Structure formats: C-alpha cells, structure tokens
C-alpha cells in the first residue's frame, strides 16, 4: 500500500509558515500578509513593525468581534458593503473569518442584491483599483498586462466580465470588475481557493448605459459598446493571452450579454478549462434540486418532463444540464431534449419562430404540428398538455405562476416540483407560501432568493435556495486541484450528483432540497472530490498521484489544499531571492496603491 503523502507535499498545501519578504509599512499594506493587532511580539521584531502598531496583541476572534461591531453600526446594506470592501483591502484573513462567522447575515451584503447596488455606483464609490483592467482600445497590450499579475504557476482562478449584463441590472461598463471580484470572494469563502492566486478581470468595451456615459466621474471608456468582429478579436486576444500566461488556470466567464455568453463558452470550452456560471452554474444547482426532488417523489430523473418558463441564458443552461444528466443515465441526447419544453416571450418555443430563437433555444423548439390547435401563449394550456413533473421559472415576470397554473400542475403529478427562480425576491414567479397552499403542501419547492420557512397544516417546510455558491466554487476547486485540461459535461454531472446527494430532504422531506450555504465549505470539498474523480476517469487531469481510489484520502487531499482564514506564522525570507508570492505580488493579494 503506497505511503500517504505528508500535507506539506501537497501542491497547494495550506498549512505551516508563510514565506514573507515584506516588512514595515509594505507588510501592513499587503492584505494577504497583514495581521493588524494580531502580529506576535517576535513577528513585530522580525519584520520591523515596532512602533507601527498599538502594544496590545489580539486574537483573530477578538478582531472579528471588534470588526462585527463596526459592521453592525453601518446603517444600510450599501454602507455595510463599503465597509467590507475596505476591510478586504486591509486584511484577507479577518475579512473572510468575519464573513464565515456571520455568513447567513452577510451573504446578501457581499453578494446579490447589495453588490449590484455597489457596482451601479462603482465609479462614485471608487477608492483603489483591485483587479485587471483591459480595454478594447489597447488590445495589443493584453499579454504584458497579464504578466504583471503572476507567472505560469501563480494564478489558479480568473473571473472575467465585460460588464454587459450584471446581476439583472444590465450594462455597467467598467463597473463589471465588481462582479469579477465578488465571484472570486465566493470561491475563497466557499471553497478555500487561495485569495492571492486569483485574478478578477474586466474587459472594457464601452457601455450603452447613458447614465454612466453622462456621469463625469465614470471611470470606463466613454463610447458605445463595441460589437461584432472587433469585439470577437478582443476576446480572442484575451483568451489566447490567458492560455499563454496562465495555462493551468480556470477561466470563469461572468455576466456577459445574452448574445455572447453561451457563444463564447461553446467556442472556448474545447481550448481550455473554462466555465460560465450564468449558463452552467445555474444549471448545476437547479439540476441538483431536481434530482433531489425526484428522489423524494420516488421518481427517476430519466422519466421527468420539464417546463422551463423563461428561456434566456439561465433557462437554457438549466435545460442543458437536465438533458446531459438524463443522457448520462443511458438515453440519447435527442430523447432527453424531447423531455423539455421552453416558454419565453413568444410563448412555447416552436420551430416556426426561426430567427427569433437563439442557438441554445433552437435545440428545444417543438414541431408546430404538435400544437396547431392549442394556445401556445397560455401557460395553463401548456401545462395541461405536457403534464410536467417540474416547472421552473427564470422569467423575471413576477406572480406568473398563478393559482390556476400551480393547481393545474398538481392535477397531474402527486409531488410537483415548482421552482420560482427569478431574483431578486420581488421578481419571483410565485411565493413558496402560495405554492404550498395551492398544492395542499404536496409541492417540492426551490427558489432563487432566500425565503423563510412556510407553515402549512401544522408542518414547517424549509425552503431551498438555488444558490450558485453551493456549486461553482467546488467545481472550480476540483478543476484547480486536478489541473484539469478542460471542464467536461461529465464533470458537471458528477458535481450535480454530489450536490444532490447532500440534500437534507433525502432524510426528511420537510427539509430543503439543497444544503444551506452555512455548510458550503463541506459541500464544496465533496463536489471537488467528485469533479476530480471524473477528471481522472476521463484522463483530463495534469496532477498525478491523486488518491482517487480512497474516498477518505481524497477528501483529506482536497481539504489539505483549501485556504483557511487563520493567521499562519510568517517566515522572513530575503527579498532578492524570494518568490513573487513572498513579495505579495500575486493576483489580488498583491500590494495595491490607494488614490
């Protein structure tokens, strides 16, 4: 039996002393190395910090208590978001420890919906740059710019946005850097991706947001958004530069416009390890909820019929994951596709809609003859004909799942799965409370925003939130640790199965269909294991000797490489011979200048 490797031999070992070549003010200005009042007496001597800090030495827990008091004193979610952004610039460990300690309370502040408001006001709230800013007028300089953030082995995860379709608030131009940064925060918070080995990028192509262009403080290009061949050339140069500079990194596309999101994903998936959370992440987490619902309802996923109400990027992404999961069970992709009905602005999508359909929608369009004498614009009629087991809303049309719609679902299915996923909350297709009332508590519900438990006939039902943060960080971690050459469909299906297997509803049907974000690090580790095992099975791994034959050893191997918000001892090293990591020059953990 091969001897188990020591933790320090793991490629991204997350324990033991940290080499640090900084000292004095430079050390205090590095968010990755800074400990504030927690520096020990010896560290203060070794790194020239005497006189730069108050004499008291506090624990991380004491710092969290103080920081939480400061956070709580802010009088609005946006003010709290700004406070947390400032903390992130100062001290990574304290920032992530504070969020992790109060994750349920803070999640909506550091991410949606409050982060959307922060992005809308990016140019007016700007304090210091944090990320990589590339603009379409300087395409020839992309390679040299990326090289400033690390060498081949230095960056694990890149999130890039062109700012066109941000969190449901539309075109935010250069403010798109905010969503890239926020997504990377989630990868570290939820899956222990090392924060100094990540890179947020915005591709500034101009903006069609008139408010931004007319704002004298706007920080991006003041020109209409570039499209067509010039845009495609910009993306191509960027992707090829990423492949050259960071060939082992995962590239995560985020909040691209409808006409580009899927197109770019499909174009570049064969070339490198890349991912689009709007397309694939939403699909993975929703498919996991469907899989859990099927088990609770004692049905097979391969037998389900699904109506998708809203067929944009998210809706078609969910449809694709359902198709792939069914196909993985033995059916052909054509047979699996036939089990999905898409409904969008024209009504049920039909072949005759032709050019009105996106490439992703065309696959699912139905034959007109099947519906020649039926009202394809009426959701009740569609449900009456299809008799779906699952109804999913991605329409952003509030209250569109009416009592008549829901009751029609319940006529044909004993345990209908109804998922109003549109967010924020005000845009949901139906409230969980109404769905349970209209189905006499028989429905299986998941939502796109957090909802409180619902009481019906003396029973309390916890509501599952289809939160992408329970999926994409673990997928990313699995790709990073295996150094996958690409992210395959089967790797995504493995992630779905892992997330579904952790459903609390499998033990108690009144519990949510998906695990809670409070358990997200445990969830992410399990998902990473599933992704790694599938990558190895398909020969897509570049790291050898991964212990995939022993589940316990594999989980230990994954956990041993997850970054944790703890203060590690600092080991002084000579700056002239030290690594870029020791000099604080990597990713977003590097030193950064204030205005």
From TrEMBL:
Region (Disordered): 574-595
UniProt KW Metal-binding keyword: yes
Gene Ontology terms: biological process: malate metabolic process
Entry binding sites for (S)-malate: 423, 467
InterPro entries: Aminoacid_DH-like_N_sf, Malic_enzyme_CS, Malic_N_dom, Malic_N_dom_sf, Malic_NAD-bd, Malic_OxRdtase, NAD(P)-bd_dom_sf
Malic enzyme N-terminal domain sequence ranges: 88-269
Needed cofactors: Mg(2+); Mn(2+)
Reaction equation(s) it catalyzes: (S)-malate + NAD(+) = pyruvate + CO2 + NADH; oxaloacetate + H(+) = pyruvate + CO2
Amino-acid positions noted as binding a divalent metal cation in the UniProt annotation, renumbered to this chain: 254-255, 278
Keywords, in A-Z order: Metal-binding, NAD, Oxidoreductase
Cellular component terms per the entry's GO annotation: cytosol; mitochondrion
GO MF term set: malate dehydrogenase (decarboxylating) (NAD+) activity; metal ion binding; NAD binding
Domain Malic enzyme NAD-binding: start-end pairs: 279-536
Comp. bias intervals (Gly residues): 586-595
Cofactor note: Divalent metal cations. Prefers magnesium or manganese.
Active site (record annotation): 111 (proton donor), 183 (proton acceptor)
Gene3D superfamilies from the UniProt entry: Malic enzyme, N-terminal domain, NAD(P)-binding Rossmann-like Domain
Pfam families: malic, Malic_M
Protein family according to the UniProt entry: Belongs to the malic enzymes family.
Protein name stated in the entry: Malic enzyme
Organism for this UniProt entry: Morchella conica CCBAS932
Source species taxonomy: Eukaryota, Fungi, Dikarya, Ascomycota, Pezizomycotina
